[in-house]
Amino acid sequence: MPFALSLVLFLSGLYLILSRSQAIWLLIGAELLLNAAAPLLVAVGTTEALALLFLLLFFALLEAAAALFLFYQWFRHTGSLQLHLLRSE
Prior knowledge:
By secondary structure, the protein is an all-alpha fold. The chain has a single domain, classed as Helix Hairpins (Orthogonal Bundle). It is 79% helix and 0% strand. It is built from 4 helices and no strands.
């Protein structure tokens, strides 16, 4: 069962990354990809696996906070979170 849940999380994160055009969906997809290993780590249940789980959740929190800050600044600058509005300069 944990493997199936991990697979569903991973595939839904991959779908969001590959199919959406808004940056916030990319962030949600990346979070799902990052957290797909969590059910497997909980199922293992060893001390090392749970420590790795807490480390994974800590880095997911940092990644989400930094990305939301950047998205907020980007939205204030452009007025939208559409990816096609990005300019390469």
